[in-house]
Amino acid sequence: MKNKLISYVTFVIVLLIILSPQYATAQSFDYDRLYNIIKDYTVIVDVKMEVSFGVHTNEQADRYLGTIVTDDGLVIFNGFTFNGVRALSSFSGFSIKTTPTEIKITTLDGKKYDGEYIGVDRYTQIGFIKIKTENNEKFKPVKFQNIKNFKVGSWVTLYTLLPDFVNPPVAADIGMISTVVKTPQFFPLTVGFNSIQLTSVLFNEALEPVGVLGELNNPSSSSFATGGLMESSNPSSNMTLLGIVTGEQLEKLIANPPQKGKTDHSWLGITLQALTKDMAQFWHLDIPGGIIVNDVMKNSPADNAGLEVGDIIYKVNGQQVEIDKEEKIPIFQRLISEMEPGTSVEFSVLRRAQEGGVDSLTLLATLQKAPMAAMDAPEYENKDLEFKVRNLVFSDYLYYNLDSATFHGVVVSALTQGGLADIEGLSMGDIIQKINNQPVNNIDDVKEIMKKMKREYAQGNHLFCLA
Amino acid sequence: MLKFLIGFIFLAASIFAVTPVESIQQDIYNARDRVMPALVHIQPVIKDYNTGELEKQAVIGSGVIFHKDGYVVTNYHVAGRAERILCTLSDKEIVPAKFIGGDPLTDIAVLKLDLSNYSGKIKVAEFGNSDSVQVGQYVIAMGSPLALSRSISVGVISTKDRYFGSDVRLPSGERTGRYNLWIQTDAAINPGNSGGPLVDLQGQIIGINSRATLYANNIGFAIPINIVKKVTDIILTKGKVTRSWIGLHCQALQELENYFGANRNSGVLIASIDPGSPAEKSFLRAGDIILEVDGQPVSARFVEELPKFYSLIADHKPGSEISLKVLRNEQEYTFKVTTKQLGDLQGEDFECKKWGFTVKAITKQMQIDYQLTDTVGAFVVGVKPLSTADNGGLRRADVIVKVNNDDLKNFSDFIDHYDKYSLANVDKVLLTIKRSGATRYVLLKVDNNKGDTLDEK
Question: φ, ψ for residue A188 (rounded to 5)?
Fold first, then answer.
């Protein structure tokens, strides 16, 4: 009896020691068990891609660690290379464009599949691929845990993809939550990992998948329409911040993955500026921050709602907009862009009257789908003349200061160096308005005209271009 | 007899073998003696506003006296924006000079030497005829390469009709080259040669050296002297070159004549027309081919022929009517266009020292260049790093349209506001600016204790 009691007490003490969190170390992860968990949904993604620099195109092959996230075979991977869906990315005539041409997916036990490229989320850079299956094969996806309490000092682990001459293909790595960032967004920061591990699944000490490794970007370096980028030479602001894209965020993304060429976010149609504390003081406005409307695009949700240049937005749906620095503008942009198109949003606006007074207004805007980015615009390639053109998009009109109602054409988006079009004097970014005196409104017109002219090439075709 | 014969052969050989070289050598000496005494080493102090504050730079250029009253021709980019000019004559005497006039579009400027304290006698060099020069002809470049004054280099004319398009810009930002071709030479031209003469073996000036290709071996360019003669004559008689403007941009016809039909191998193809220009108002259109100007046939099959056509239009008196016969869709039409004066390329500069930026007045040409809605306001040329304006978010190419609550009527209105607020030590000023069509606000928080001295008026 006494012995039994002693052994019971000993058992409880040992149990307490084992379960006690302060003893958690790298050793506390049971990697045999973890490998068994991940092997069902961890895959290797081999992507062949075409990288176009406009004047020439390279073939490239890359290898990523992927994770199956739905039972029908949706896979996430590090889509940094493909981040073409950056909305309103300013003029793209000269940018690098990456197009996947072949995707192969291999499971850890060696099964091979073809994959189809879906898209990349523009904030997290998480890429999406769909496994092509013969007879609706079902997979065992990862189930992210929705954990909100991230404790500084607790351990997290992940698997890294090793180079292809090494077998087994994956190896474990360990890191620690170093702080929980509050602004510009909620983001548990980690130490111990590096950028090549982005989008790897992170597990806590209970071996629960809590999210994937992501990067916190300086919002001011990725923004369009802030009017100007705040570039900093301060080394600390260029530090790479890795951390956890949480299960909650991932769930939303997985339920509605971004589609290439499909604009899935909303816009308001303004260019904007932060209301700094100094400006608020100068205008005697008693608000902690806001958005100054710099420009209102014609027929945009902002225009329809009656927003005017010079208006100061200080509340969105009753919530204070505490934007007092240019760097914080992306918070507002993201807030708007992540709402569903069609959503009604209530803006509380201050309008400074001519006489010096300030009017307070409430305006209701119905958000619309954001216009297509230049990268996603449909393209037409002419192999004989060796050039590509794409449709004009919203940012072109903005960039060139053109009137979208009266100005039509197509933009030269790629040229082969030394190709006919190049030699004939076309340049990247030229806007073709007429071909052989026939007006060109979009790539379909170009296709039509080129088809008709096919036989005239031998005599030398001439384009009349206006830029 | 044999001795005599040998002696004769020897003599003949010496005459035929040696004389040409000796003669070229002699020609170079002669040309040198005719032009070197008129050669001028120019040291202007130019004003640069691009960094957001007025910076004065001492630069070096070359020039040549072409008129007995002490007029010197040089490049506009040497002395065009100069504040103070010193000239070293060939006898090493230094005399001050005054800027008389300049023309950025042909990169020509005229200075006048102040000879009141000069006891010597100036020499004048002669202009030749650049139309009759030949490719391969010997030329001598004279000037101050890399500030090494009184240097000469010898070469040949490599090409006499080099075309650079109208997008060549001077260091100060003005477009140049629309109205002239260049003489290309392999006589060494280096920075500092600018404004110096390119001379033929007769000792006549056939060009004004003005640019060179960097990192190349002896690819230099001179403005043909016939263009220089024309421009300097106008500057001496009228003080300033005025040109007509109708807003045309043309393209060599050769590139497209197959498309327009093989028999159409003459005419000038309009590539684009400036919005709001006289040509646009007269219903000329891109794609039209100009066949005649005032009844005279014109043609630009090759780009090298474009400057001549542009000059033909520009040489009309501003406000006069030009009749243009054009071909459009196989039909001939005649349009009458009333020209306007081609305005200044760049406006007057101003430094807002206390606020940390520089501005310039907006000319009609700048409005077209930068696609601005009008010429009202002040164009930001530069913003000094970490200045009040920089901290407030002002950028190059912003247009200031409002200071506090006052809409600006014109450029001097802006200067008045600046003077008023900076003199009164106002510590917060709100600028309303236009940037890419959008309206932004820049709050200047002026630190009046910083001890900035006020601008001298």
Answer: -70, 120
Judged by CB atoms closer than 8 Å, whether chains meet at A436 and B259 is answered as yes
A439 at interface of B, judged by CB pairs closer than 8 A: no
Q: Please provide the size of chain B in residues.
A: 457
Q: Say how far apart CA A353 and CA A261 lie, in whole Å.
A: 42
CB-nearest partner of A462 from B256, B272, B445: B256
Residues B336 and B363 in one domain: no
Residue B300's nearest CA partner among B285, B313, B315 is B313
DSSP output for A10-38:
HHHHHHHHHH-GGG--GGGS-HHHHHHHH
**Nearest alpha-carbon partner for B314 in B103, B79, B80:** B103
Beta-carbon separation of B438 and A401 below 8 A: no
**B255·A459 Cβ contact <8 A:** no
Domains of chain A and any CATH numbers: 38-132 (2.40.10.10), 147-255 (2.40.10.10), 266-369 (2.30.42.10), 377-459 (2.30.42.10)
Residues of A in contact with B428 (CB under 8 A): 278, 282
What is the CATH classification number for the domain harbouring B255? 2.30.42.10
Q: Domain limits at B355?
A: 349-450
Closest chain B C-alpha to A269 CA, distance in angstroms: 12
Active-site residue, B77 included: yes
- Number of structural domains (chain B) is 4
Q: d(Cα B219, Cα B233) in Å, to the nearest integer?
A: 29
Interstrand relation of B126-127 and B204-212 (parallel, antiparallel or unpaired): parallel
Query: Does B390 reside within a domain?
Result: yes
- The residue of chain B nearest to residue A352, with distances taken between CA atoms, is B405
Pick from B78, B113, B148: which residue ends a domain?
A: B113
Q: Are the beta carbons of A251 and A144 closer than 8 angstroms?
A: yes
Shared domain for B132 and B229, answered yes or no, is yes
Is B299 marked active-site?
no
Q: Between chains, do B258 and A462 touch, taking CB under 8 Å as contact? A: yes
Inside any domain, residue B182: yes
Residues of B in contact with A326 (CB under 8 A): 393
Query: B440 to chain A, minimum CA–CA distance in Å?
Result: 5
Q: Is the ipTM of this complex over 0.85?
A: no
Say if residues A379 and A390 touch (Cβ distance below 8 Å): yes
Query: Which of the following is catalytic: B90, B153, B194, B210?
Result: B194
Best CA proximity match to A412, nearest among A425, A398, A395, A394: A425
CATH of the domain at B80: 2.40.10.10
Answer whether B434's CB lies under 8 Å from B398's CB: yes
Chain B residues with CB-CB distance to A464 below 8 A: 256, 259, 287
Confirm whether B376 is domain-assigned.
yes
Chain B CB within 8 Å of residue A136 CB: no
Q: Do B441 and A273 touch (CB under 8 A)?
A: yes
pLDDT in tens, chain B (457 residues): 566 666 655 555 555 555 677 789 999 999 999 999 999 999 999 888 888 999 898 999 999 999 999 999 999 999 988 889 999 999 999 999 999 999 999 999 999 999 999 999 999 999 999 999 999 999 999 999 999 999 999 999 999 999 987 678 888 778 888 899 999 999 999 999 999 999 999 999 999 999 988 888 899 999 999 999 999 999 999 999 999 999 999 988 887 776 666 567 789 999 888 888 899 999 998 888 999 999 999 999 999 999 999 999 999 999 999 999 999 888 899 999 999 998 888 888 999 999 999 999 999 888 888 888 889 999 999 999 999 999 999 999 999 999 998 999 999 999 999 999 999 988 899 999 999 888 999 999 998 776 454 444 3
Which residue of chain A has the CA closest to B442? Answer: A279
How far is it, in rounded angstroms, from Cα B291 to Cα B300? 10
Give pTM, 2 decimals: 0.75
Of B113, B148, B180, the residue at which a domain comes to its end is: B113
